[in-house]
Design a protein that fits this description.
534 residues; Alpha-Beta Plaits; Rossmann fold; Glucose Oxidase, domain 1; seven-stranded mixed β-barrel; globular
Length: 534
C-alpha cells in the first residue's frame, strides 16, 4: 500500500471511530419514556413538540392518551413543560420471568422420553398441575371456544401436541418477528399447559380442541426484555383478536400509570388478565401482576406446598402448579435428556455435552463395571457400562478409555456433593455418557455388577419451574370456566375463581398463595348452585 493510500485509510478509520463514538454517546444519552397527554385533541401538538425536542415515537398508546418516545435525556425537563403534557414517566422494562433450575429424576426423564411415543405404558401423561386444578373434571359445553392470548416468546406451531393449525398470531415489527418463529422455548411450554391436545402422545393441557383458541403475540426474542408500552400495545392486539383471557408469564419491578390504566381499561372492556407473581423468592411486587385489574399467580409444588422461589405480596391472588411442570417444548429444543436405572433404582442423570444418543426405544442395557478413575484401558469393561469417578483426567479421556476398553456406556459420578454439567469438549465418542451425583455414584458402585439401563435422547417435552408455569394453569382454568358459564362477566368469573380456591397456608387470603389453589370443578359447581361471582 502506498503512502497516500495509507494516509487516506488512517483518516477514514479515524473519522469512522469519531462517528461511532458520537453515535454511542447519543444513544447512551437518551431515555425511553411514556408521555401522557390531556386529551385526544392535544395528541398531535404534543407529538410535534416531542419531535422538535429530538424525540422519536416508539409506541402509540392513544387508547390511554399516551405515547412512548425515546428522547434526549437533556430535553426531559423541557418535555414536561410542553402544553398538554400531563405526565412523563419511565417506560419500564418487562422481561420473561426466568425459570428456576430443575433437577430431573429418572422417572421424570423417562416420562419425557416416553411422551413422544404413542404406545406402551408410559405414553400420554396428564401433568400433576392439571389434576391439581381439576382441569379435566367438568362436563363438556356446546359454547364457542374462548380465545386465550399468550404474550411470550412465540409458539412452535409444528409441535404434534399443540393445536398449531387452530392458532393465530401477530407479526411484531419491533424486532421479535413472526409469532411462530421460536428462539426460546418459554412460550411453547406455557401454551402446552393451556392447550396441549388429547392425542395419545405427550401431555394434556387444561383445555382441549374446541374449548380454546390460541392467539400468540411474540414480544420477546431470546432472553431480551421488552417495555411496558410494548406490553400494553400487545394487550390491545389481543383484544382486537377477540381474546377473552390474556396470559402473561412476564414481569417488571416497577409500575407506571399508563400501563396501570391500560389493564384497568381491559377489565372494563370485559377481559381477564393473568400474570406471574415472579420468582425472586422475596416479599416484593411485580408488574403487571400487582395491578388490581390483573390476577397475580403464585407457584406451588406437587404436594400443594408454596414454592420458596415464588414472590409474596398482598396482591397474590391465586396459586397453581409451578415446580417441575411437564409441558411441550419446541421440536428438538427439550435438549438431551438422560435416564439411568440399575437394580431397581433410578438416578438423576445429565448427558455430557456431545454425548451420542441411544434413541428413545433403544436403551443401552448392560452389566455395570467399576472403572475407577478411568485413566487407562481395562479389558474387564468390555460389553459393560463403566462407572467412573470424576477427577484427574478429562471427561472425554475417561469416556474414550471406556469405549476403547469395549465398554458400551459411561457414567461419571461426582467427587463433590451434587451432580454437575460436563462436556466432552468436542471430542467424538461412540458410546453414550452421563453424569450423576456423588451419592448416586456411591450407590451405583456398591451395586456393581448389577445391570444398568441408560437412555440419552433429544425430546420435544421438558420440565420447567416458576410462576411462569403456574400462570397458564390459571389462564386455562379461567377460559374453560367462562366457556361453561358465558352468562358470567369477566369480574364474576374472577370472583368465582377466588371464592372457590382451595385455601392453602394461613387461613383466608395470604401473601404467599393468595386465596389458594385454583379449582375448576369447584368453581363450576359453585356457579351452578350460587350464581356468578358468589
Amino acid at each position: 500500500m502506498n503512502k497516500s493510500m495509507t494516509l487516506h485509510t488512517t483518516r477514514l478509520c479515524a473519522a469512522l471511530s469519531l462517528a461511532l463514538a458520537a453515535w454511542g454517546a447519543q444513544a447512551a444519552d437518551t431515555t425511553r419514556v411514556i408521555v401522557s397527554y390531556q386529551s385526544m385533541e392535544s395528541a398531535a401538538s404534543v407529538r410535534a413538540a416531542a419531535q422538535q425536542l429530538g424525540g422519536v415515537l416508539k409506541v402509540d398508546l392513544s387508547h390511554v392518551r399516551a405515547m412512548a418516545i425515546e428522547v434526549p435525556t437533556a430535553r426531559l425537563a423541557a418535555l414536561r413543560k410542553v402544553p398538554g403534557v400531563v405526565l412523563v414517566e419511565v417506560d419500564q422494562k418487562r422481561e420473561l420471568v426466568p425459570h428456576v433450575a430443575t433437577t430431573l429424576s429418572a422417572d421424570m426423564a423417562d416420562a419425557a422420553m416416553d411422551a413422544m411415543r404413542g404406545d406402551g405404558p408410559l405414553r400420554q401423561r396428564l401433568p400433576y398441575g392439571i389434576k391439581q386444578a381439576q382441569g379435566k373434571n367438568v362436563p363438556g359445553s356446546d359454547a364457542p371456544p374462548i380465545t386465550v392470548c399468550i404474550i411470550d416468546t412465540g409458539l412452535d406451531r409444528t409441535h404434534p401436541d399443540l393445536p398449531g393449525a387452530d392458532a393465530t398470531g401477530n407479526f411484531d415489527p419491533g424486532g421479535a418477528g413472526n409469532w411462530y418463529d421460536v428462539d426460546n422455548p418459554h412460550g411453547t411450554h406455557v401454551a402446552g399447559t393451556v392447550a396441549a391436545v388429547d392425542n395419545e402422545i405427550g401431555v394434556i393441557g387444561i383445555a382441549g380442541r374446541g374449548e380454546v383458541r390460541l392467539h400468540i403475540l411474540k414480544v420477546f426474542t431470546g432472553d431480551a426484555w421488552s417495555y411496558s408500552s410494548t406490553l400494553s400495545a400487545a394487550t390491545q392486539e389481543c383484544k382486537a383478536a377477540g381474546a377473552k383471557v390474556i396470559s402473561m408469564s412476564l414481569r417488571g419491578l416497577f409500575p407506571n400509570n399508563a400501563e396501570r390504566e391500560n389493564f384497568a381499561q381491559l377489565e372494563r372492556d370485559g377481559l381477564i388478565s393473568v400474570a406471574a407473581a415472579g420468582n425472586d423468592g422475596a416479599q416484593i411486587n411485580g408488574y403487571p401482576a400487582s395491578y388490581p385489574s390483573v390476577i397475580s399467580v403464585a407457584a406451588v409444588d406437587i404436594n400443594s406446598n408454596w414454592a420458596s422461589f415464588s414472590n409474596r405480596n398482598s396482591q397474590v391472588e391465586l396459586s397453581a402448579a409451578g415446580v417441575n411442570v411437564a409441558s411441550t417444548m419446541p421440536v428438538g429444543a427439550g435438549g438431551l435428556m438422560g435416564s439411568l436405572r440399575q437394580a431397581g433404582s433410578g438416578y438423576g442423570a445429565i448427558p455430557l455435552e456431545g454425548s451420542p444418543q441411544t434413541g428413545i426405544d433403544t436403551p443401552v442395557i448392560a452389566a455395570t463395571y467399576d472403572f475407577g478413575l478411568g485413566e487407562a484401558i481395562d479389558a474387564g469393561a468390555a460389553g459393560k457400562t463403566c462407572v467412573i469417578l470424576r477427577g484427574v483426567n478429562a471427561f472425554s479421556a475417561k469416556v474414550l478409555n471406556c469405549q476403547n476398553s469395549g465398554g458400551v456406556a459411561a457414567v461419571i459420578y461426582n467427587n463433590a456433593p451434587g451432580n454437575f454439567n460436563g462436556t466432552l469438549g468436542g471430542v467424538a465418542t461412540t458410546i453414550p455418557s452421563v453424569s450423576i451425583s456423588d451419592v448416586d455414584g456411591a450407590a451405583m458402585k456398591a451395586a456393581v455388577p448389577a445391570v444398568a439401563r441408560m437412555r440419552v435422547a433429544a425430546v420435544d417435552y421438558g420440565y420447567l419451574s416458576g410462576t411462569s408455569m403456574s400462570t397458564p394453569h390459571v389462564s386455562g382454568v379461567a377460559a374453560k370456566l367462562w366457556r361453561l358459564h358465558p352468562e358470567c362477566s369477566n369480574t364474576e368469573i374472577r370472583a368465582s375463581l377466588d371464592n372457590s380456591a382451595l385455601d392453602l397456608g394461613d387461613p383466608g387470603r395470604d401473601v404467599r398463595t393468595g386465596f389458594g389453589l385454583v379449582q375448576l370443578r369447584t368453581a363450576h359447581e359453585r356457579i351452578n348452585t350460587m350464581g356468578c361471582g358468589n
